């Protein structure tokens, strides 16, 4: 097996094409940092962690847990907080910024740009004559595009995607392989990772004496600009109103979003979260892995829901909750501490009352 990554750089060029090299001045401009004086033309060819970076690579420090690496790193330049610059060894230049992780993300985007769309339609794709596909869009193998679908410029539709009648997809979207989209309007710069399902029936039914009767699901899915949705996530269309995903929201893999849910702007929804129907989640809410929301809730702006929390009632803006049923984090930890004290007390009481064991032969 041939290793193509080369020289310790992250980003195997087989999969992640590299741009550059770039001068220190160009890197500094891209990350909104001031370049050290006297070195603006020094060349850099990539990014790497502190442990493996070399003299022509950029690294960063965001977690103080790794402070000891600043004096040891061989990185040519390090993105870090201004107050940590004097911790660097003489072999490294400082790129001080207020938000190192954000600057690191920008540096990564400079050296590893996303590949652009390759305009055209693969000969195996099936495009309905009534669909409107921009000439600058890319349609991959075996994609199926239904009637009245609109696909904007520079958007990429991956292999085996199915996009049903009337769907609108904006500009610069990246729809990975085996995605299905129906009854949806999607904004610009939206990314759907492999296996995403958008617009299927919501889980709605009425009970009759003889069984269940499905309730018509007549809403849509509206996905606003700059949303990123992880692999195998499912987003049901609304029943009497639309399911909405707000601009800038990030949804991880294997998340279930029920019908009529309204997600605000810039929310973070981590893997395996389940959001039941008609729940309203305001802007900047974070839901950690496997959190669950019962239906018809209102979650206030900036609330933070811990992993595996079971949210069964409305939450005010800015609260932090843990546990199932979910409760304020301070109350949760008090209860955990109390249970541990009771458990220790019970063990001590049990050991004091335990009868002496007979001696062996």
From TrEMBL:
Signal peptide start-end: none
InterPro entries noted in UniProt: GMPPB_C, Hexapep, LpxD, Trimer_LpxA-like_sf, UDP_GlcNAc_AcTrfase_non-rep
Keyword tRNA-binding: no
Catalytic reactions on record: a UDP-3-O-[(3R)-3-hydroxyacyl]-alpha-D-glucosamine + a (3R)-hydroxyacyl-[ACP] = a UDP-2-N,3-O-bis[(3R)-3-hydroxyacyl]-alpha-D-glucosamine + holo-[ACP] + H(+)
Database matches in SUPFAM superfamilies: Trimeric LpxA-like enzymes
Domain of life: Bacteria
Single biological process term from Gene Ontology: lipid A biosynthetic process
EC class (word): transferase
A Gene Ontology cellular-component term: membrane
Keywords associated with the record: Acyltransferase, Lipid A biosynthesis, Lipid biosynthesis, Lipid metabolism, Repeat, Transferase
Domain UDP-3-O-[3-hydroxymyristoyl] glucosamine N-acyltransferase non-repeat region: 44-107
Classification via Pfam families: GMPPB_C, Hexapep, LpxD
Magnesium found in the keyword field: no
CDD domains: LbH_LpxD
Pathway: Bacterial outer membrane biogenesis; LPS lipid A biosynthesis
Gene Ontology MF term list: N-acyltransferase activity; UDP-3-O-[(3R)-3-hydroxyacyl]-glucosamine N-acyltransferase activity
Active-site residue list: 259 (proton acceptor)
Quaternary data: Homotrimer.
Record PANTHER family: UDP-3-O-ACYLGLUCOSAMINE N-ACYLTRANSFERASE, UDP-3-O-ACYLGLUCOSAMINE N-ACYLTRANSFERASE 1, MITOCHONDRIAL-RELATED
Similarity remark: Belongs to the transferase hexapeptide repeat family. LpxD subfamily.
Protein role: Catalyzes the N-acylation of UDP-3-O-acylglucosamine using 3-hydroxyacyl-ACP as the acyl donor. Is involved in the biosynthesis of lipid A, a phosphorylated glycolipid that anchors the lipopolysaccharide to the outer membrane of the cell.
NCBIfam families: lipid_A_lpxD, PRK00892.1
Protein name per UniProt: UDP-3-O-acylglucosamine N-acyltransferase
Native organism: Acidiphilium rubrum
Encoding gene per record: lpxD
